[in-house]
Every structure is written in structure tokens, then in C-alpha cells.
Design a protein that fits this description.
Number of strands: 9
Distance between the termini: 79 Å
Oligomer: single chain
Strand order of the largest sheet: 3-2-1-5-4
């Protein structure tokens, strides 16, 4: 009995199973808090293209619904590529990107069908295209939910989670209480949410909860009892996953290198994620951060201080035309060799390194190599 049989997911219903520190969505397993951390990378800036998209779509949908017949045709033609782009973008976001079936495209085609649009207007006592309107509202609610959740939780992470010295359930719970229950600044931000009346943020998400009996994903011979949660609002889905993650000691973190959000599942305070570093595709952000930290430490090391001073002088002499390019290359090589020797030999570092790194000595050794 596969897990996904017990779940129904569409643009108006969002399902999740959870057990201990794991969650299950459309038959796939994730750490608790995964979706809440991942979605933070998709929106939440003050000047965000998603907010512009929401504003444009809201205006056009309202105009198309109430306009006269010929004008509605024009507006529907204008809306079709914009709404298509919106649905395509939604399917790149978690949790939608993990769903194998994208059956909402069928709903999109029906909603944007001109004949269906006009038939709904004729059949409706209020002359409203109900199918077009209901589908468009579902799309808009999803866009608003993503924007508002990211806006608020980015603020929560920046002001509270980022300053924690330990990332445990207790520390997370205290931070959530201080932010959601006591922080007047957060309440003001909550009141100023764009389109906040459409998808309101509640720290106590509205869910339908129950139990389900499923085969253990790791051992098909065993059965387990899992909690099942169904949300009718996407923002509740994200809030539940966030709080469930915090309860398990999982929380969203901000990478100091790539500035993306990622989920941490240990009590340690993270600085970098394990994603590819934008500066060097051969390294992860964690590896790149360690390298840069080592370089920063090297700047204060006496051996590196002498080396940096000498190599900077060599480069300046080359830029001013005092030495040739060939001599520059050889002099830099000599300086590197002397540096490495000093790092390996403490006696040489203390007694001979500084003298050998004198400018004329380095140039003399470089000229010998050129001969």
C-alpha cells in the first residue's frame, strides 16, 4: 500500500504525512522542515518580480471577469501567456516540483478556453466565468502564499534564528515564541503583508489532522502509523512544515557564501551550505568558506605577511616597466619556493627567511634561473 495512495495534492489541497523527524509527500521522504526552508529561496524580497506578477494578474483577472464580451476576449488573450508562465513557475517550487503529475495543466486549458469562458458567463446568473475565476484565484492564492510566507519567515530567520548559539528544539521554540507572540515589529510586518487578506499567516496553521497506516518506506515487511495532515491553504502547509521542523530541531539557515537558505538538522550553528559555490563550481560553499577562512588567517601569519609584501612589490615593478614579464614570473616562483620552505622549516623561518626574501636577493635568484 504505497504512501501516495493516501494523499491528494492539487492547487487547492496540500497533503503531508509525518513521523518523528521525517515527512512524506507524494511517496518521497524528506527531513522535517525541508519545504519551509527550500521555498525561502524563491521570493520574499521587498522589490520582488513575484509581487509584480501578482499585482498584474490580479488586475487582469478582475478586468476580464467584469468586462464586456469583446473586451473580455482581448483580456483573455493577454492573460493566457502570463497565467501559463505563472503555472510553469509554480511547478518549479517545492512542493510542486516533487510531484510527478502536473494535472493542473488540464484545468488551465479549460479555464483559458474562450468557448467555456463565454458559456460560463451565459449560464451564470451574475454573468461571471466561474471556472476561469476559480482557477485564476487558486493560482493567485499560491503566488501570494509563497510571497508572504517567504517575506515573514526571512525576517524571522534573520532576526531570531541567525543569532542562536544552539539550534535545538528548546532554542527554536523560544525564538518562535518571541517572534510570533511578543514581537510588535513582526506584528506590524504581518499587518502590512501585500494581499495579506488573501493568504493570512497564522503561527497556528489551520490543518485537518489524522492518522494513516502505511508500509515502512525502509522495510516493506513492516507497517507503521504516521500522522496525516491536509491543508486547504498553501501557506498553512509551509507554516506547519516550518513548526514541525523546529520541533525536531531542524531549522532554516542562511548561507554566508551563496546567500541561499538551507535546512540544518543538527544543533551546530552553520555558516555555509553544501551547495555548489558560485565562485568556483569545483567546490561546495562549505569548502570555499573554509578556504577563504584559511586565507584570512594566512594574512596575519608572519611568513605570509613577508611573502605578500614581496610579491606585491614584484607586480608593481612589472606594471611600471622596471622588470620584464619573464623576470616577474621567475621572481614570483622564487618567492613561493622560499615561502614553502619557511612553512616546512621553523629554523629557516626564524633565521634566514626574511633575508632571503629581500628584493635584490629574490631578483638575483630569479636571474640565475633565467640563465
Amino acid at each position: 500500500m504505497p504512501l501516495e495512495i493516501h494523499q491528494y495534492n492539487a492547487f487547492d489541497t496540500f497533503s503531508l504525512h509525518y513521523r518523528k523527524d521525517r515527512v512524506y509527500h507524494v511517496g518521497k521522504e524528506f527531513p522535517a522542515g525541508f519545504f519551509a526552508a527550500e521555498i525561502l529561496n524563491y521570493a520574499g524580497e521587498i522589490h520582488d518580480p513575484l509581487l509584480e506578477r501578482i499585482t498584474t494578474l490580479t488586475t487582469l483577472v478582475g478586468d476580464a471577469t467584469t468586462a464586456e464580451k469583446e473586451k473580455s476576449r482581448e483580456l483573455l488573450a493577454e492573460l493566457r501567456p502570463l497565467l501559463k508562465d505563472a503555472v510553469s513557475w509554480i511547478y518549479t517550487c517545492p512542493p510542486f516540483c516533487y510531484q510527478d503529475s502536473q494535472h493542473e495543466w488540464h484545468s488551465f486549458e479549460l479555464a483559458m478556453n474562450m468557448d467555456r469562458f463565454e458559456q460560463d458567463r451565459e449560464d451564470s446568473p451574475n454573468h461571471l466565468p466561474y471556472y476561469f475565476l476559480s482557477f485564476s484565484e487558486e493560482v493567485l492564492k499560491i503566488l501570494v502564499a509563497i510571497y508572504n510566507f517567504c517575506l515573514l519567515v526571512r525576517a524571522f530567520e534573520s532576526k531570531y534564528l541567525r543569532r542562536l548559539t544552539k539550534r535545538t528544539e528548546s532554542a527554536f521554540s523560544k525564538a518562535a515564541h518571541e517572534c510570533f507572540d511578543e514581537d510588535d515589529g513582526f506584528l506590524i510586518l504581518l499587518e502590512q503583508m501585500p494581499f495579506g487578506e488573501i493568504e493570512e499567516f497564522f503561527s497556528k496553521p489551520r490543518v485537518i489532522s489524522g492518522f494513516d497506516y502505511i508500509q515502512d518506506p525502509n522495510d516493506k515487511e513492516k507497517w507503521i502509523t504516521a500522522h496525516q495532515v491536509v491543508c486547504k491553504r498553501l501557506i498553512d502547509f509551509y507554516v506547519f512544515d516550518l513548526l514541525n521542523g523546529l520541533q525536531c530541531g531542524h531549522g532554516p539557515s542562511w548561507c554566508r557564501n551563496c546567500h541561499r537558505y538551507f535546512l540544518t538538522t543538527t544543533a551546530h550553528v552553520p555558516k555555509y551550505c553544501d551547495g555548489i559555490a558560485p565562485q568556483d563550481s569545483r567546490m561546495t560553499c562549505r569548502q570555499y568558506g573554509a578556504m577563504m577562512r584559511q586565507k584570512e588567517q594566512n594574512k596575519n601569519h608572519p611568513i605570509y605577511h613577508i611573502f605578500t609584501t614581496r610579491t606585491n612589490t614584484i607586480r608593481k615593478h612589472h606594471q611600471r616597466g622596471k622588470i620584464s614579464d619573464e623576470l616577474r614570473k621567475e621572481a614570483l616562483y622564487v618567492a613561493e619556493c622560499l615561502r614553502d620552505k619557511a612553512l616546512m622549516d621553523n629554523d629557516y623561518a626564524a633565521n634566514g627567511y626574511a633575508q632571503d626574501m629581500e628584493q635584490e636577493h629574490v631578483y638575483a635568484e630569479a636571474r640565475k634561473r633565467l640563465k
